[in-house]
Amino acid sequence: MSSYTTNAPGMHLQDLILDTNTTVSNKQKVDCLKLLKVVIKNLADPSKANDPKYRQLRLSNEKVHAKLLPCPSGISYMKAIGFIEITDASDGSQYLRIPETSNVNVGHMKAALSELTNAIEIIAPSATSAAKISKQNQPCIDADSGEEKKTPEGIIIRKLVPSTQYATSGKMTELQKTRLLMEKKRQHEAKELKKDRAKNVSMLKQDKYVRENDENWTSGLSAACAKSGSSIETFRDRHGES
To answer: Where is the chain membrane-spanning (predicted)?
Structure first.
């Protein structure tokens, strides 16, 4: 018996991303998703998938309680993955646990791991992405221009001047023109990245609306937050109706 239920985890992942409950901040959502990612990462490892230690989560654990419980969709996601909520007879603690009789599909877990990573990126772009966008929005620097200054230690520092200043001088070299074009290209790509992120969120909202209002809507086995290029597609998009 597989631990991956037909109650698609992607539905709950969508709900978590789109939750507009003002009491749940984006930081709390990201904390919850990162916790889920740790759990799924272990289950995606064949050497750990059958280890009871990695097949359960104690809800009374302080960190688990703080990160998971504020986001009910996170708990629903865990249950859709194959966890069940139980009270352990040995210590009376509440656990989310995958039953011993259930098999973990490592392939599904690897796909879920990728989808969780994408979900985190949608809610809070990584520092790397943010730095990239920031760099893209900065003017190019012409290393051949500027003023030199020597520090007391004898180190020469060159004060660089943005090449955009040459745009008003009418004396731009071919190299400066190329750099200016590259700068404009980077700025355009940054805008497109921002538009793609907004489009992804819009697609999630649309898919959620159809799920809640179309009586003929059916769910697949995979999560709905899998990226394909700059878009997000559902299990049905990738594999067709069952």
So the answer is: none
